[in-house]
Amino acid sequence: MSGVNTAVLATDYNTIQSKINNVLGNGSGDFGYGQLVTSSQVARANRITVAQWNALRNDLLKARNHQTSVDESGLLTVASTTTRIRESDRAAYSLFADVATTNRLITPPSNQASLTNLQTVTRTASWSTTISHQVTVTFASEDAGRFFFNSGSSIKFSSTMTGYSAGVSLLVNQSWATLLTNMGIISFDAYSTTKSGTGTAQAIGFYNLTTTDQLIFTKLVEAGNQYTPNRYELKARKSGNSIIFTPTWSYVEDGNYGIFEPADGTLTSLVQAFTATGSNVSVTAPTSSTTSL
Fold first, then answer.
1. What's the pLDDT band for 168 if we cut at 50, 70, 90?
2. Fewer CB within 10 Å of terminal CB in the chain, N or C?
3. Reported pTM
4. Per-domain residue ranges of the chain
């Protein structure tokens, strides 16, 4: 047994258990992965059993393994009838819980998540004005949305311009293809929008949304390009348990060359969900719908 008859008290155990329950369990706000927590609080007058210590250990390891996919079990003593948990072990457990708490919103490794396509929207008609479409990403409940983003899951956007013609529209087609390639993948997370390529991403994420559109990313045509100020923009707003994203391809025809240059080929807008689906933490991916491009 461990607990009342050792240097570690039930109050010490409960403090650690509260920390990891707030991360791995339902929590509130930006705390909580929405997972089953096997450890529980211990009455102050009771001893802490071997099973209770090891349940706490397993909960701690599940949360941290989701965050890193690294086996850190060697950092936490396994309780047994012959191995008692003492102050040094309590400190290690407490530190472990603090590290898991600090890193609770981190993007999990790819082997702890799945990348799935939500929407693939294409346009083959030529265009020379601003075009856009809307993607509505819907969660089953407010908690489902929290668990999704708290677990490090994200909504990802990318776009390509392919199969375009040469001739009079070649340069404008190439400028769009280069712009979209260079911006890479845009990821919408709990508190920020990030990108794998170039462009300007804002510190706006799920917890920063309002019911009014906010610009979360923009990418201008490459510097020195004759098609300035053509750009890609991404906006987002909240509506109940849904997030409405609006990707926009802003084409400003300046007419300086006296030539009408419609972009053609196939413009593709891809929306994906990077969802925590590992053996440690698994959340439900949202559903989605879209308008045409």
1. confident
2. N
3. 0.94
4. 10-102, 110-290
Q: Which of 31, 35, 13, 12 is nearest to 23 (CA)?
A: 31
CA 272/CA 185 separation, integer angstroms: 10
Amino acid identity at 190: A
30/151 Cα distance (integer angstroms) = 9
| 280, two tokens | 């440690």
CB count, 10 Å around CB of 128?
15
Q: How many Cα neighbours within 13 Å face the side chain of 100?
A: 33
Contact call for residues 260 and 46 (beta carbons, < 8 A): no
Report the DSSP beta bridge partners of residue 219. 232
Alpha carbon distance 14, 105 (integer Å)? 23
Comparing CA positions, the residue from 103, 150, 174, 176 lying closest to residue 275 is: 150
Torsion of CA 22, 23, 26, 32, to 10 degrees: 130
Which of helix, strand or coil describes residue 250? Answer: strand
Q: Which residues pair with 243 in a beta bridge?
A: 137, 238
Per-residue pLDDT reduced to its tens digit, 198-241: 999 999 999 999 999 999 999 999 988 888 899 999 999 999 99
DSSP calls for 107-156: PPPGGGEEEEEEEEEEE-S-B-S-EE--EEEE-SSHHHHHHHHHTT-EEE
| 257 — pLDDT class (breaks 50, 70, 90) | low
Residues 237 and 214: beta-carbon distance below 8 Å: yes
Is-contact 285 133, C-beta < 8 A? no
